[in-house]
Amino acid sequence: MGTSGSWYVVGIDNGGTCNNATVLDAGGKFLVDRLVETPSRVLEGPEIAVEALAESYEGILAHTNLDPSQVRAVGLDTPGPASADGVISNKGATNFSMPAWHGFDIRGALAARLGKPVTYTNDANAAALYAHHAHFGAIASERSSVAAIVGTGLGGGVVESGRVITGSAGMAGELGHVHIPVEGILAEGQPVPRCNCGFTADVESIASLTGIVNNLLPYWLTRYPDHELAKGVPIGKAAKLLRGFGEKGDELALKVFEQQAKAIGRLFTIAANFSDPHAYFVGGGVVEAAAAFRDWYLAKVRENTLLRDEQRALSVFALVPDLDMAGARGAAVAALAATPAT
């Protein structure tokens, strides 16, 4: 790192609707404390979308009164799957279904457009990295963590010594597709959940909005036929309404979310035996909720994570902070770590 204010990196979180940008100085201080969004235009193809990323970059510089000469590097995150170098999967990816995106080097294209080095991180990894650094601060490089980000799917990230583990093909930390034992999670007669990826009984098949739509809610509505959501509400809409019911203590909703929390607990139990992290983070829409509900959810995750006494004494469970800004901030942290101080 350099001294605060000596130079800067920009972080850009690329989403299906908007890009969000932030600025981090060489000393590790963020200059932006809110969302600064511009349209992402990813559905219009790579050329237009890369130009939209450039507009996001230029907009955040104007917002913070910085000159491009003061910026040494840019961090970019997008949904995966993509390679460690930011090449979108040949089969496409979330938000990148158009054939023109398949195999597209989004990192390289942005670097060429901006004339700046660009560091790539997938969006869940970026959120995990930000959670790690926000929690551990000055000792982040001495700590490890695992994060589960519950959204449409189940993303995540593994951080060791303050850096995201990317793996040989850039696909490490795809925690949603880790198989877990479902005995003790599923109710009597409940079908084994199936993931859109083709797996059965992986974490995403339970702990995701898609898992609720495809697997959990259809079963529980048969057990609560008089429930408000069982009365002609389309399953997709019902799934999105479910968190509000959970916040009110609704029995059906709590059954669903407890199964999700148990699934994440099983995932973290595997992590405890595989990498023995210092911290376990949970993020995503499910915890963007009333305090009592998110605290209950996190407590259920902790309760279902089986740790040895020695591990429990040293580990923490926490929520991903500043979730709407976590992606851009994590991308900026990754860029800062990859940029020489001199």
From TrEMBL:
<dbReference type="InterPro" id="IPR049874">
    <property type="entry name" value="ROK_cs"/>
</dbReference>
<comment type="similarity">
    <text>Belongs to the ROK (NagC/XylR) family.</text>
</comment>
<protein>
    <submittedName>
        <fullName>Glucokinase</fullName>
    </submittedName>
</protein>
<dbReference type="InterPro" id="IPR000600">
    <property type="entry name" value="ROK"/>
</dbReference>
<dbReference type="Pfam" id="PF00480">
    <property type="entry name" value="ROK"/>
</dbReference>
<dbReference type="InterPro" id="IPR043129">
    <property type="entry name" value="ATPase_NBD"/>
</dbReference>
